[in-house]
Model the fold of this input.
Amino acid sequence: MATFQYEALNAQSGKTEKGELNVATQAEALARLQEMGLAPVKVDAVKAAPKKSKTKRGAVKGKKGEKKGVGDLEIKIPGLSGRVKEKNLTIFTRQLAQLTSAGLPLLSGLRVLEKQEKTPTLRRVLGELAEVIEGGGTFSEGLSQNAGVFNKLFVSMVKAGELGGVLEVVLDRLAQFMEKAMRIKGKVKAALFYPIAVLVVAIVIMAILMVFDIPKFKDVFAEMMGQGLPAFTEFVLDISDTVRLNAFGTLTGMFAALLTFSMIGRTQFGRYTLDKLSLILPVIGSVVEKVAIARFSRTLGTLINSGVPILQALNIVKDTSGNVVVARAVQEVHDSVKEGETIVAPLEASRVFPPMVISMVDVGEKTGDMPQMLEKVADTYDEEVDRAVESLTSLIEPIMIVFLAVIVGSIVIAMFLPLIAMIEGIE
Done:
């Protein structure tokens, strides 16, 4: 059990009451206050008085003359110190939504989450957000100052929630959005893990055979056979010699190929080409398409439902689409709406969205239920993604097994062909 000090407003008397509660968690403290008919203003855990200890030599002073040991120092790694994992950000959003829905003020909720946050970067960001609010700024202003952590979608939804006075509703909606997006991404990653793992195993096996085993067979063939080797065997032996004798050159070539591919992918034309290919590839293209449509529908529906203006929402959807082909289609929709036209025509012209999606958007636009229709589309395609991922996994597994068997089997056959030829020569 822990002790929490609270400050709450009595709705009947209008007076502020203070006291302590002995409960396990802060959530229980908030629930207890609601049962007592009190509106929580501030709820803080009572910390036990720290034992006095001598400061060790070599300690470093922190804020207000406070001294920190070497183990308390935050080590910043260049390129990694400012990043916050999507999982941690999703958990923070869900927790903040729960605290605000329970009646805890936003500032108090941020301070509570700051104290319990274990990630240094996110803890620092939460402290900065709290300072902005304490200084008279808004939550959305603090978020916009940390654009590296919170994207445009996050900032815009929070701003709309503040303007509409429904911040707790928007935070809950945002948490749901992030949780669903992370779930879909996790399923796609899980489906791709198996083929990538099999491919890595195949490469490792091939490298071991080419570098260590096949050269031994070459020496045996040179001693036992005077005549030439079969063409397929000679081909495999040549590959082995190339890999073994020019290992550095082989690795350099592979690295150069990957670097070139990466540089091409960063260009506008290259990115568009790769994204276009990802949509039309057999089997995989279907999954990529469904993920893109689900993301587009849920993002746009969530933004509109949260009160974000349609043109601003379309710009955010474009920036967060993750696919250049879809982003261009959304840009065309934006331009169409800006000129006073409908959403349906550019969606249909893009040939990215299926007729069913276009029809539902058309119905939503005519009836004024656009957010609800987009949410239904997103839910439908989330289920489609689940089924497509399962089908992809069941299809990829035998393909990768056959691929591995063909690679290893080809090497084995190449090594046995000279033996067969020698046996036939003896007969």
Q: What stands out?
A: The first strand starts at residue 2 and ends at 10. Residues 1-27+37-46 form one domain. DSSP finds 16 helices and five strands in the chain.
